[in-house]
Amino acid sequence: MSKDPQDRERYAEIVSRSALKQSLDEIAAAHGGASLEARAEVLARVKQTSARGRDAARIMLGEDGSGSLCAARISHLTDTIISALFDFATVHVYRVDNPSTSERMTVSAVGGYGRGTLAPGSDIDLLFVLPYKQTPWTEQVVEWMLYVLWDMGLKVGHATRNVDECIRLSRTDMTIRTAILEARFICGEIALFADLGARFDAEVVQGTGPEFIAAKLAERDERHRKAGDTRYLVEPNVKEGKGGLRDLHTLFWIAKYFYHIRDTAELVPLGVLSKREFKLFEKAEDFLWAVRCHMHFLTGKPEERLSFDIQRDIASALDYQDHPGLSAVERFMKHYFLVAKDVGDLTRIFCAGLEDQQAKLAPGLINGMISRFASRTRKIPGTLDFLDDKGRITLADADVFKRDPVNIIRLFHLADIRELEFHPDALKRVTRSLRMINAGLRENEEANRLFMSILTSPRQPGIILRRMNEAGVLGRFIPEFGRIVAMMQFNMYHHYTVDEHLIRAVSVLSGIDKGTETQEHPLASKLMPSIEERDVLYVAVLIHDIAKGRPEDHSVAGAKVARKLCPRLGMTPKQTELVAWLIDEHLTMSMVAQSRDLNDRKTISDFAEKVRTLERLKLLLVLSVCDIRAVGPGVWNGWKGQLLRTLYYETELMISGGFSEVSRRDRAKHAQAALSDALADWPARDRAAYLRLHYEPYLLSVPIEEQVRHADFIRAADAAGKPLATMVRTHAFHAITEITLLAPDHPRLLSIVAGACAAAGANIADAQVSTTSDGRALDTIMINREWPDDADELRRAATIGTMIEDVLAGRSSIPDVIARKQSGRRKPRPFVVKPGVTISNSLSNKFTVIEIECLDRTGLLSEITSVLSDLSLDIASAHITTFGEKVVDTFYVRDLTGMKITSDNRQINTIARLKAVLSNQADEMRDAMPSGMIAPAGTSSRRPAAKPEQTEAKTSQKEIS
């Protein structure tokens, strides 16, 4: 069980083998071992023992916090039960007084159970070892034991094999080989187990170290690939994910196989791990086991993914507390990711030691992890401190960093410019030399020059920065960066830790810089060559979130960090202030683009006043693109790109003095001409009629390829005489599905469409809604993808489209369908977003702007827009932005006379009504409102019909982004 004698003794008092055996013997004496009554009582007794032992293990985990001890206790509990069942079966149920040589058996634990550790919900893997072929006696004993274990509710993986079969199968099956490698004797014939171990070492392990190591490392790499190949996912898999328990198990398997050891501690005298590194191994393993055991106890099942909905509870169970700038759950998750990083460090150190040992003993391993040693290393031109070992940079000798600490940075710089991989030994020595990265090195001019060269490299700066971060160099060289290493943000929007997000942002910038992102980001790619302050942009992208986790706003605090850091990196005062400005405003452009009406001149003039110069506009555009792209898969999409481009072009015109109605009309005419050219195969009369349908905002904000698709859609609907029509398209890469709707426009259309999507179980992630000159609405709703297969997703989207048509045609009732969808499905939400409603008359010259921030939920948009209609407010433009679990909805509204909402009483009433919706109190508020405060249904906010020539009045186009 546990290595701690006191813990072993304490737990043995609760779960006593001798006591359980005596208890089962008494049952046999009372009922006879083979009777049904005896079996029923045996089952009840072992269930009671299991429940008592697990309760005790849970209580003790809460007391001492040791995950390794908890896993050992549950393993000991399972040993006790299995041993008692084996004794009962062989002594009382199938007793053989004079057993033959074939009527012997060993019960052994394999897999994780073989290591003497079990999580509360883990499977129990058993190997029943026989001396020869199976006999009726061995078959009966195994079957009796398994049925009792299954009746206890345990998941049991098992195999029954003789020694010859174990050896033969382990030669060809690496999974079986690994299981036998970890086999541990539980009960039965000890000599038989010893025979298996001796033959396994002699006939399987001997001389096959390279083969086993290569297979296990390849298996690990494939597991990492499936899990996302990063240890910094904010909902990590504690068992299988990168940096999780399985990585430590892989190291142990390899060590046991290659070094013929029984315990990880034996790697210290072998020189593979130092004492400090072995302690790190133990601490990491103990922490991961604690998290995993708490997860299983909490959920009552073998849950391996540390999801948002249990992170708070696990943090509480481990006694994490809130600190200024970081909540308890964020502190817990930061600790988790730091441990995952430690596991990565140990993997590199272990592989380096393994490679050194292998170099002395054998030609090498396959699969590229441990290379062949047939040829000598080569010198790297220009340096005597580093060598090229078949494409991997390594140290010329052990004192390279001691002679010149700048070599720590130079190692990564040379790897970049020579495009070399890193030898495990080099990274191991870097990890062991981190104390040399002190104030002197940080202020060293050459070290900072080399770092800037790495950051702004035309090759792969993201890869080099990630290696620096994983080795601990980046956080030591820039201490402010060290504070956000492994820091997570407890929300559904960010998919990665802060440091991983920043490094990914640099990778995106590098792709734009090299011209490989022209299709995804055409404007940013076009602007990049003309940006004069390229270094400024790279530094801003790397550190824009460097002040996350502090009590003050991270943009303001980040600007302060920039003013301190940039001079050290060799930047001029002007460059330093530019970096500080970019960090201070790095959220501004994306927020304006997604939550403001870009057809409102006031929006553009306010933003232009903040930006002031074209250079800053270019820099902010590229920074915004990199920031959004690096948040996580599916966050960036074509709508966001189009909105940023529209905001850029409008602001560019104003800054350059060209913003005027004439220039806007000219651009609209140009866009109309482009659409006319694209529809050249249409009859001239049809083309001319269609071009008159769309207003300037549509022509200026919708990409030409989308305009052509819409044209074909509308033409087909008109030809079929369909007043209501839908069209569907999937975007697998962005995990988004588009539903385009053509319908007669009316004031509550947005509310109806949003409600229909909610009723169909679709979450609106984005949308674009516009009005045509003949009084119809052309709405494109973007919903989160649900099915991986396009055919399945298209069927789902078609169902949603039908639901929208049914609601618009009056065949379905939104409230009834939503109520049915939500019945029995409510559960506690792991996130808290304080509802907020603000009303401003300064953001637009013509409209009152209402901004709503709250926790997202099914049907929310429908409820909000319905209330605005009840309040007799005309929604001229709506912008729906989702940040994971949080929504920020902005509505440009006027009253029915076309005026802003200036009355204090009406503003207060509007805020109260909206806050009631956000708090699920809409019905109560509606009942409490004085008569006359709510317009009658059906007459509340219908706009006067606009004439085709009234382009300005048709800002009722809704661009939901």
Automatic annotation (TrEMBL):
SMART domains cross-referenced by the UniProt entry: HDc (SM00471)
EC number: 2.7.7.59, 3.1.4.-
Entry-linked CDD domains: ACT_ACR-UUR-like_2 (cd04899), HDc (cd00077), NT_GlnE_GlnD_like (cd05401)
Start and end residues of each ACT domain: 738-815, 849-930
UniProt cross-references to Pfam families, sorted A to Z: ACT_ACR9_3rd (PF24931), GlnD_UR_UTase (PF08335), HD (PF01966), NTP_transf_2 (PF01909)
Gene Ontology terms describing biological process: regulation of nitrogen utilization
The entry's keywords: Hydrolase, Magnesium, Multifunctional enzyme, Nucleotidyltransferase, Repeat, Transferase
Keyword Nucleotidyltransferase found: yes
Positions of the UniProt region annotated as Disordered: 930-961
Domain HD: 498-620
Activity control summary: Uridylyltransferase (UTase) activity is inhibited by glutamine, while glutamine activates uridylyl-removing (UR) activity.
Residues covered by region (Uridylyltransferase): 1-381
Function as written in the Swiss-Prot or TrEMBL entry: Modifies, by uridylylation and deuridylylation, the PII regulatory proteins (GlnB and homologs), in response to the nitrogen status of the cell that GlnD senses through the glutamine level. Under low glutamine levels, catalyzes the conversion of the PII proteins and UTP to PII-UMP and PPi, while under higher glutamine levels, GlnD hydrolyzes PII-UMP to PII and UMP (deuridylylation). Thus, controls uridylylation state and activity of the PII proteins, and plays an important role in the regulation of nitrogen metabolism.
Protein name: Bifunctional uridylyltransferase/uridylyl-removing enzyme
Name of the coding gene: glnD
